[in-house]
């Protein structure tokens, strides 16, 4: 659900609060350096970067590290977004990603994927009568 809010500009960042006259400042609450929008909260804020760190396939959140390749995380984001779009009965989709690996997996023929269960599931979801 958070992804849907973030993508649709519904996350109440300080920038959004200021736009709605609910705040007097749009400065980032965590680092006090720049406008607090969704991109800053999730990626650009120095404090957020210290919370979310990725190194050699390990994802660290608040000091706890687990092995989780970034590609896997990005595929799950696509999966959850497709599931949410389906539940909301959206039929016209634009899928955007900055990961060439995700694009490559989504464009591959399903029979080439063999045992990659998540990628196969994504192909099945994309086979629905979407307007992509």
| Count of DSSP-assigned helices | 7
Span of the ends, CA to CA: 21 Å
**Which bin fits the share of residues in helices?**
40-55%
- Number of extended strands: 3
Shape: elongated
Beta percentage is 5-15%
- Main-sheet strand order equals 1-2-3
Model regions low in confidence, pLDDT < 50 over at least 5 residues: none
What is the overall pLDDT average? 77
Largest sheet: 3 strands, antiparallel
Pfam families: RVT_3, zf-RVT
Domain RNase H type-1: 67-110
Domain Reverse transcriptase zinc-binding: 1-52
InterPro entries: RNaseH_domain, RVT-Znf
Descriptors:
3-stranded antiparallel sheet; 132 residues; 46% helix; 7 helices; 3 strands; mainly alpha; 2 domains; elongated; 9% strand
Task: Please specify the SSE layout and strand pairing.
Blueprint: H1 2-7, H2 14-19, H3 38-44, H4 46-51, E1 52-55, E2 58-61, E3 64-67, H5 70-87, H6 100-107, H7 117-126
Antiparallel strand pairs: 1-2, 2-3
């Amino acid at each position: 659900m958070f992804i849907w809010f973030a993508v649709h500009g519904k996350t109440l960042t300080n920038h959004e609060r200021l736009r709605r006259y609910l705040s007097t400042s749009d400065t980032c609450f965590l680092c006090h350096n720049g406008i607090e929008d969704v991109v800053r909260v999730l990626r650009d804020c120095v404090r957020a970067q210290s919370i979310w760190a990725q190194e050699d396939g390990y994802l660290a959140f608040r000091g706890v590290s687990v092995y989780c390749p970034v590609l896997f995380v990005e595929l799950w984001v696509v999966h959850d977004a497709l599931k949410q779009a389906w539940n909301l009965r959206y039929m016209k989709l634009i899928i955007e990603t900055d990961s060439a690996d995700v694009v490559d997996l989504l464009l591959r023929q399903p029979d080439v994927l063999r045992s990659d269960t998540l990628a196969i599931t994504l192909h099945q979801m994309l086979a629905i009568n979407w307007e992509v």
